[in-house]
Protein 1
Amino acid sequence: MITVPIDYTKRPAAAATPPVSLSKVSLTKAAPTVSLTKQGSASGVLRVNLNWNAKPATGGGIFRKPAPGVDLDLGCLYEYTDGSKGVVQALGNAFTDRHSFGRNPICRLDGDDRSGAVSQGENLFVDLAQAQAVRRILIFTFIYQGVPNWAEARAVVTVFPASGPEIEVLLDDADDRASMCAIVMLENTGSDLSVRREVRYIQGGHKKMDEAYGWGMRWEAGRK
């Protein structure tokens, strides 16, 4: 076999490729899951942020006019390894979980943005120092006030681990017949903690979402 040295001066130019962002991961239908364990992000406090356009417009061109404001609420269903289940959301003033193993809640909501104008949006925090107590956490949003108009609301959920790249999920493929959207599932298998894109629009509210994911809780009307 004859070998020859490689002439690097004659190597053809590589095709241009888009830069890979080390600061953000986008979950899509084609790539719906990211492992927090594998990327070294399964510790500290995880922050889930919801931002949206509270004042969508209707009509087209110069005839576009403001539509009724949209109030989105961020929340989660949680299921822990001891079998306890519950919801964290502004509705019913359930701003923290009620089944935490330590003194601090595993899941808590920082507040309720009724206007959508607050720059930091709404934030849900998950204490991953207690991740061993978590079986699954479903992050969701629902339209508390206003006509469903998901496309114009342009809602974006961003998951901020304590370390590692942020994780972005766009609420696309909108279904304006639905008032609720299951966004991402945080799941702990015991050996791996992962975030999986759902973006599943639910017609019929909390009870229907519960049924869709097999949470098995009882529901009653609530208010802020």
Note: Helices lie at 150-153, 206-213.
Protein 2
Amino acid sequence: MKVFLYPGQGAQYPGMGTDFYNNSDRVKELFEIATKETGIDVKELLFNGTAEDLKKTDNTQVAITLVNLASTIMLEEKGIKPNGVAGFSLGEYAALATAGVVSINDVFKLVKKRGDIMQSVCEGLKDSKGETGMSAILKLTPEEIEKVIDDSKIEGVYIANYNSPAQTVLSGLKSSLLEIEPLLKDAGARRVVQLQVSGPFHCPLLADAKVEFEKFLETIEFNDPIMPIYSNVTGDIIKTGTDAKKLCGEQIISPVRWIAIEEKIKETGFSIAYESGPGKVLTGLFSGLDKEFKAIPAGTIEDIQGIEE
């Protein structure tokens, strides 16, 4: 059985998805839908936009979702279809569309609104609380990091992503992240890397974004999944459309439990994963957890043409 994995913010790069556009009429139609539903000229953004253009959260969320779904089209045109899906953070929205929970039109409405709200709230946080950010911690287990945070009593720092047993991402106030950095190194962290992001994603600092986004969610129809889809919030399979809608709000302030998702994917019986979107981050994370599990990047035409079934 095959599971498609969808990357999130940070995977973007200028020109991504343009090879899909140039090789598929269905992808061209997808670009038209994305432009119509978001008001963003996505062809211009992806063909001619700079890295700085793509870094803006309101652009990033639409662009990555578009390329994730374009990759799925190209995989399906090669005869490879998913039996289940999972998305990392923003990537969960492409998974929701593929699993039939939301329509293609609505998924672009959702990520456009989500991006706009998060961009606005992050800018407001900068004015009210100061600089915010995220840091990747390498070579400490999540449990060791949790202990450092608890023992330090430093406020405004949270675990945002449980990426792998050796890689965890923190989110919060920049001053708090800098304050806890030497404590993490003393505890054995090999490196602490400040990430180039526009806000403190997946933590309680975005509570206002959650409230505002939940109001918009009520205008969108959510259906029950037609295949297994895994929740970032719980690490488990989402059973109903009602649950999926609630979890979309919770996801904004909750950590991404990617380790739990990978374990659940294996437990479900999937034997191969395709990273349906830009980059190879999720392929690498799966290899970090289980070198025997077959995870294949599918973010370019070259990747997909090289796949041997």
Note: The chain is about 50% helix and 15% strand.
Protein 3
Amino acid sequence: MLLAIDIGNTHVALGLFSGSQLVHHWRLGTNRHYTSDEVAALVRSLFELSEVDRSEVHRAIISCVVPPLLPIFERTCTKLIQSPPLVVGPGTRSGISIRVDNPKEVGADRIANSVAAYHLLGGPAIAIDFGTATSFDCISEDGEFIGGAIFPGVLISLDALIAGASKLGSVEIVRPPAVIGRNTTHNLQSGMLYGYAGMVDSMVGRIRKELGEHAQVVATGGLAGLIASEAQTIRRIEPFLTLEGLRYIYELNPEPR
């Protein structure tokens, strides 16, 4: 089986694949002070809780946007499966061309999202990831990653607003009773939900003018379902888009030694 690990700024997503099927998935909070022993203990516990036979896990792949954690998870994989993981980065075969000014700047998670989006939808396509940042990844008709856009994430924006406005408090991001809020909580919820949905539709419309009007859209990330319920341009939600992209990438590369 293949263990896919996506190390993000807020969460670490782990998925276990048997062939092409995602059979288990877990999520950890990102802790920049993890040691490899701590991560190994956590992953062992997740395997045990899910009744996974660790001896059947022989391969691993990692995408990481938190550089200090990469060697920690590399050592963890070596401890758990006695094999070094494949790390997505410059020189890794992905099946798509990276047509931007500096390919080394592109986050490994964005590459994985683009790979999965192209496999699922063909091109042109737009992959939107509602994570710490809201990223728009654009894939051409010929399967090229040509860039995109990055917007502050929903929760980051809310936290920044609350930190800068002394009379505002944290709220749960859910659909309010109406667009016009009648109290502070509903005002914030309306702005976060309908405001971001409107931003998404506007950005997709602008991107399509450059990428192609028939570009399909796929969304992923924790708030993808909620935002997609109000955004007119999102037609497909894939909660494990990044993990699926890592699986596709692993299949294109030789076994790490």
Note: The two ends are 17 Å apart (CA to CA).
Protein 4
Amino acid sequence: MFTGIVTDVGRVAKVTDGNDGRRLRIATSYDPAGIDLGASITVDGICLTVTEKGAEATLGNWFDVFAARETLGVTEVGKWHEGRRVNLERSLKIGDELGGHIVSGHIDGMAEIVDKQETSEQITFTFETAPEIARFVAKKGSVALNGTSLTVNSVEGNRFSVHLIPYTVQVTTWGDYGVGDRVNIEVDPMARYAARLFETLSVTQKD
């Protein structure tokens, strides 16, 4: 489990494609000594498993993750290139502060940026996503975009907006994005549970 609070901005340092998926080496400020092999880290919101780790004089600290074909099918990891900056978050430990909202790292799909408004160091983004995902996005609710827990400002059809304060812009990769870019979206699991409960109650009442 994660919170959607980004704790490091990493960099894709190496990409290796294979028939089974894609291997990524991520440069990070995380101390590799404190990362267990098999640990989960979200990379732009995608929960991936650490397969190798280390430190080099030129690269610095790094860890390797593997993106399987299923992950490539629902995200744009297949298009990532060396040098890309990525939002990172390590998994929750007992006693950690839950500063955002519960995030699983299981991506529901993609959201496209259709508008970007900058005011000083603040940014308001408007996104469009598929109807089957948009139905779970609610005004003042939570959504995880590229691993960042954000509050929904407005919703209109399949579009919704979020506002990023200067601190969020500074400690994440959001300043890199513009209109036309696509990002990973994970809806609030509570919205899914509520929708499922409503569907179940509706069926029960009809019976």
Note: The two ends are 37 Å apart (CA to CA).
